[in-house]
Each structure stands twice: as structure tokens, then as C-alpha cells.
Amino acid sequence: MKFFIRLFFRTLRTVLGPVMLLKEAITRPKGITRTPTAQAAADQQCESLVLYHYKTCPFCARVRQEMARLSLNIKRIDAQHDGADRQALTQQGGRSKVPCLKITDAAGASQWLYESDKIIGYLQGRFAR
């Protein structure tokens, strides 16, 4: 039974995934315009941020849309498949849940922020005008 459930959801992701990605591309908001100096400062702040996501996760898509709206160049890591990135998310962050924003401070300490609403709130609070 477990096999059939996994097969069902894998097939569903395979069919709906490209549709979701197309919708995200079509509805991507126009980013805010900053002065070159302000954009360079935002880009520098974004160097301490990493978003762990799945390409076809609707909650991850919400975060990516907000990143586009705020014109943020945050590094993205697709942690859907088993590998070093997913292992880092699980071991360092504590859970293999996405979306997850890794926030590294100047001292090198990392904070892992889960839940799309919390991530969006953090990004708006830090980067919105």
C-alpha cells in the first residue's frame, strides 16, 4: 500500500510540477527598484542567506516570489533529492523541511528559519523599504 501511495504522489508531482513552475514564471512580480548603491548593499546582505527549497513546493514558490518582489539575490539550494545539501539541512538545521532560510551572522553562527510565512516576514522586515 505504501508503494502505491508514493507512486501516486510521485506521478502527481511529475504531472503538476511543470505546470507549477510555469505559473510561477508567468506570475513572477516585478522587483522593487533600488539605487545601485542600495542594491549592492542588499546583495551584500544576501550573501549571508541561503534558501533550501524544492522546485515544485508551493510554499517554496511563495518565498521565491517574495524574493523576486524584493529583488533579492539569495542563493538557492534544491534539497529535494538525497545528497550533501539535504544532509546539511537535516544535520545542521535539525529537520529536512522546506522552505528553510539559513541565516549566517558575522560571527559565523547559523540560524535556521522554517515556515514560508516566517521567512517572508523576515525578508520583508529586513529588506522592504
Structural notes for this entry:
The protein is an alpha+beta fold and 129 residues long. A hairpin with a 5-residue loop joins strand 3 and strand 4. The protein is flat. The chain has one domain (2-127): 3-Layer(aba) Sandwich (Glutaredoxin), CATH 3.40.30. Strands 2-1-3-4 form a 4-stranded mixed sheet. The chain contains 5 helices and 4 strands; from the N terminus they run ααβαβαββα.
What is the highest CATH level, the class?
Alpha Beta
Biggest sheet descriptor = 4 strands, mixed
Give the CATH H-level superfamily: Glutaredoxin
| Estimated radius of gyration | 16 Å
How would the global form be characterised?
Answer: flat
Q: Order of strands across the widest beta sheet?
A: 2-1-3-4
Question: What's the number of structural domains?
Answer: 1
* End-to-end separation: 51 Å
Keywords:
about 130 residues, alpha+beta, Glutaredoxin, 4-stranded mixed beta sheet, 5 helices, flat
Give a brief rundown of this model.
With about 130 residues, the chain is of the alpha+beta class. Helices cover about 55% and strands about 15% of the residues.
